[in-house]
Amino acid sequence: MSFSIIVHVEEGMVLAGDRRALLDKNIYNTRGEISRIERGVFINDSIQKVFTCPNDAGIIIDGSLYSGNKSLSLSMANFIESKIYENTAINEMPQLLLDYFNRFIEPVNMDIYIAGYDKKAKEPKQKIYFISLSKLSYREIALEGPGAIWQGDRVAMDRMFDRVWSKKEEEYIEFNDNPVLWEYFSLQDAIDFSEYALELTDRMMHFWSLPKTVGGGADVLIITPKGSQWVEEKKVHRGS
Amino acid sequence: MSYSIVINVTDGIVMASDRRLTYQRTEENDDGPPVHLNNEFITDSTRKTFKCPNGCGISPSGIFVIDGMNLEAVMEDFIDKNIHEYTDINAIPQMLIDYFRGFVERIDNNIFVAGYEQKDGVFKQKLFYVYLHNLTYVEMDISYPGATWDGERDAISRLILDLYRKDERGGYEPIPNYTILWRYFTLQDAVDFARFALKTTAQTHRFWSMPEYVSEESDILILKPQDAYWLQKIELQ
Fold it and tell me: Is A89 exposed, middle or buried, given 0-12, 13-18 or 19+ CB atoms closer than 10 A?
């Protein structure tokens, strides 16, 4: 799993995601059958899940990040390099993605979000698409004003920002609802919120008794009608 | 308002609180409903966790002004006059009640009293909760490791408690909850959780549409069977 978030406000969009992939190992018995799955035997904290494209759209990948032994993060980088050009329209990208990953022999259980601007409209218009590679389908997410979409290990953020109830004896009592005033968010607020969301999820997964599927720092990309820019991007570095 | 948390683990107790005090008032408005002025005055230097000479910790949260005085000074006065090296922790809640009976106001403030009781050479963790609005107290059951928090409780309660959301048919369905294995927490894990709880509460308030009642600045007190010390205490500068 992973955690990623898209915050879209009037000034622009912020795409952020963690960098962790938790890998399992199958243990086989003498008959060659899988007798046990060892979860999290290898932690990779340098998997890129947020991508920028030559047409200034951004892509987030989530879910299973390997198909067989093939890194889908690398596949996504290859897709962008070979299929997306400066003048590719954002609304063409979902089908391009489906066509590209449909040719893979091994199953691909990855979800993808595309965010950016429809530059061919009269006024640049924010667009977000969700693509399910396991179902080979996509849909455009209707944006009714500024807001945020998060996915992956979403429980901490859902608990914090959804309407929730606790139960006392047989009575359900609603928690105070203090909705986020997205319409007043600046782009900086959107960046701060994205970083807060990643840190909250990362820390809460640390304290919960769960496999640590979120971590490795964050990549944060901003997209405005003028272009895209990394606010935070993990680079390869010399090992210690 | 405030946020304070007490975490008891096998090898000690962590008591932590924020340092924000906000002054707010309601102003009459000739042209419409009254206006509540939040954050008219904010100070991030109010101490809300106190170390006692007997190795206990005291941490109030809620309204921080009583009879026109800052509660920080009032608590220091209480400790100076009432708590000595050999004061039994079990006696402190009633001492607090007797002391606050001397004030005219009954403020909406709850006080944690935490530490160790020593009986026949055996140390036992203790936690009391004193209600100043009605001058009563209860002893909390902390026979197992865990955390207790008060003040602006919502953010951390949302992360820890069993919660429900409404389903499409108007019923309630549980939201996944994952256990926190308090029994395996070291004292360092407890400190990390206290810091996380304070920071998360302060940062979440920034994004919720509500006044920011909690500061990220905090005091952290460690209570051990025969020792009490500050891990973090903001001093005058």
Answer: middle
